[in-house]
Amino acid sequence: xxxxxxxxxxxxxxxxxxxxxxxxxxxxxxxxxxxxxxxxxxxxxxxxxxxxxxxxxxxxxxxxxxxxxxxxxxxxxxxxxxxxxxxxxxxxxxxxxxxxxxxxxxxxxxxxxxxxxxxxxxxxxxxxxxxxxxxxxxxxxxxxxxxxxxxxxxxxxxxxxxxxxxxxxxxxxxxxxxxxxxxxxxxxxxxxxxxxxxxxxxxxxxxxxxxxxxxxxxxxxxxxxxxxxxxxxxxxxxxxxxxxxxxxxxxxxxxxxxxxxxxxxxxxxxxxxxxxxxxxxxxxxxxxxxxxxx
Length: 294
Fold this sequence. Notes:
This protein is about 40% helix and about 15% strand. It contains eleven helices and ten strands.
């Protein structure tokens, strides 16, 4: 009897576009999941896939520019930097706006109860509302009220939801861990700008850089920006939680896209994330074949 295949799509902000490449490469190799579980950005991609909207999502992601990312963010003055209402409205309008029971592929996602810290599995009701709760990263997006609970990002408790996949009946689970690459690699400083013969950066760019430059460490590296600190801090937190959960609830195959160089909000770099998702599957094809033939 053919084993039931589950796909657990992990959290990881902009790195999550790699999930699209993972799904594509698995399908090309002949592996189509029977159930899908997602956390945070994994919930976003997983819901679109479960509803048959992956083509549309991939086209949108590959054409996404930084200014469009900004246009989806609505500033909030309480609970988080952004309300998330524009993002949810966009998601409902272009991708999923239906009940879980209506999805062609069984799908569930993870959120966190802010009042108790408990892991919440979302498997009923509005898919868009559940995805919005799963991606509500504290400090970035405001929490979501659902079933009398205040819900935030599932990555706080279960960044790679293998356990949810098992609960959905999966015999074999392929999991995608987006936080396994080098911590802090997104903070690596870029090559210095070209300077003139006297050692000064030319023109107005040099004057602007001098005026607004950040302090430097003793080794010459710039101190990271606020966004850089926040992005790396979240990465460290989720990596540690994921390692702990995966040690106790291991996947049959763990895919680890190498995307540590992408920052929290690099959603406009979807093409390279998708390609690395494909590459992660190719690297692990022998393990996938073995797991599904055992």
